[in-house]
Design a protein that fits this description.
Length: 356
């Protein structure tokens, strides 16, 4: 398949280009587009056949449902419905605070949404992105857009157009190059189908943020290993995910112990002839001079910067051909909960306690 790459100004999306890309979606094509979180791979959410092509292009498991992207509430309610007044109130209260933005809300599905989107579930995840190109694309398409992240299944999510081109060129109709994603990790997925909202996937909007609006908020514990949970509430959570080619190990403990342990592990692996990568806070970069590639997640306390840097760093390790990556844990405060969740999955659940 020939893939067209369309460069669009993220600040002022050119109307003719947006109209063209919207038409590609409307008529059944696949368009990769920027959002504030990560790049998405979009198709007409009401067209089961086009949606099926997304799974094909990504090599995505058939039981992992897609998020439906909308530009306004009217379109959101073409796809979703409320099963209670309570759910409706939560939806509008959270929407008023966090939309447009990096929050996906799970409500009940309307029949017009094909099961191909929800993978047979009676619920649907809906998100109103803030990114201008994304919004314009949805409006021009005239339909809600079903879109997972625009990476090959299992690989780190794309936060730059170059990442999308790497994974998707030749597999989709259009790739929009609309600059870098400012958030860097995928949206928070919150389930509104129970008595209290429950975060199924942490993201930039934290469970504390949600609790401030909703009064309370639960969280699905994502620290399980593959195979340990049969049916996680959010099917996407069970796969090794976001993963670089190299083996990755996440080190937890106090900052000094982590640095000491990783230094020790670097020399062990180097003596075996392995190429070693380290992912560390900016403050710790200087400890790892013996590694083959050391990348910074940003200052220790800056969760938003960790989120922005993570996926690009994982791809850079691949480009540098390292065999193993040692990553410092960031802790789980605020946005770092999302960062740790992605690192945990990228490591396939491999964490080790640093020794003192
Ligand atoms: O920021 C984002 O959310 C990006 C951009 C493109 O919007 N999209 C994204 O999509 O991350 P994807 O497909 O990579 O992740 C969707 C997540 C999966 O974990 C999936 O299992 C969950 O949302 N999900 C979708 N619909 C669901 C539903 N009805 N019930 C439970 N989980 C659902
Ligand atoms: Mg994804």
């Amino acid at each position: 398949m020939k893939t067209e790459i369309v460069k669009i100004d993220p600040a002022r999306p050119e109307p003719e280009k947006m109209e063209y890309c919207g038409a590609v979606i409307r008529y059944g094509g696949l368009v990769a587009f920027p959002t504030e979180t990560v790049y998405g791979l979009g198709a007409n959410a009401f067209d089961a056949k086009s949606v099926g092509n997304i799974f094909e292009a990504k090599g995505r498991p058939g039981d992992n449902p897609l998020i439906v992207h909308v530009a306004n509430y009217e379109t959101a309610l073409r796809a979703g419905r409320f099963s209670s007044e309570h759910q409706q109130e939560l939806f509008y209260a959270l929407g008023a605070r966090f939309w447009p933005g990096p929050l996906t809300m799970i409500i009940h599905r309307k029949d017009i949404v094909p099961y191909r989107v929800t993978c047979g579930l009676e619920t649907v995840g809906i998100r109103m992105p803030a990114n201008k190109v994304a919004r314009e694309l949805i409006l021009r398409a005239g339909v809600p857009i079903a879109a997972p992240s625009a990476n090959l299944s299992g690989r780190p999510s794309p936060t730059r157009a170059s990442h999308v081109i790497e994974d998707m060129k030749g597999r989709v109709d259009v790739i929009i190059d609309g600059g870098d994603c400012e958030v860097g990790v995928e949206s928070t997925v919150v389930d509104l189908c129970g008595t209290e909202p429950v975060v199924l996937r942490p993201g930039f909007v934290t469970k504390e943020d949600i609790a401030r609006v909703a009064g309370q908020c639960g969280e699905f514990d994502w620290r399980f290993n593959e195979g340990a949970v049969d049916r996680p509430p959010s099917p996407g959570m069970k796969y090794r995910h976001y993963a670089p080619g190299a083996e990755m190990i996440l080190y937890e403990g106090n900052a000094d112990d982590v640095a000491g342990t990783i230094r020790h592990r670097i020399s062990e692996e180097k003596s075996l002839g392995k190429r070693v990568g380290v992912l560390a806070t900016q403050e710790h970069i200087c400890y790892y001079k013996d590694a083959d590639a050391v990348l910074s997640l940003g200052p220790a306390k800056d969760g938003a910067e960790h989120a922005r840097a993570l996926f690009d760093s994982l791809r850079q390790f691949d480009a540098r051909g390292v065999d193993v990556i040692f990553a410092e844990s960031t802790g789980c405060e605020g946005v770092d909960d999302a960062v740790m969740n992605r690192m945990f999955r990228a490591a396939g659940g491999k964490t080790e306690k640093a020794f003192g």
